[in-house]
Amino acid sequence: MDHYIGTLWRRTHPSTYGADMTISPLVDAPTLISELGRFIPLDASVLLPGQKGDPDAAFMDAHLPGAQRFDIDVFADPESPLPHTVPGAARFARLMGALGASEESPIVFYDGRGSVGACRGWWLARLFGHRNARILDGGLDAWVKAGGPVEHGRAVAPDATVFRCRPRYALLAGADDVRHALERPDALVLDARSGARFAATVPEPRPGVRGGHMPGARSMDWTRLVDRNGCFLPRTGLRHLLAAAEDRAVIASCGSGLTAATIVAGLAVAGYGEAALYDGSWAEWGSDPDAPVVTGGDEHE
Question: Which residue intervals define the domain Rhodanese in the entry (predicted)?
Answer without folding.
Answer: 48-152, 183-294
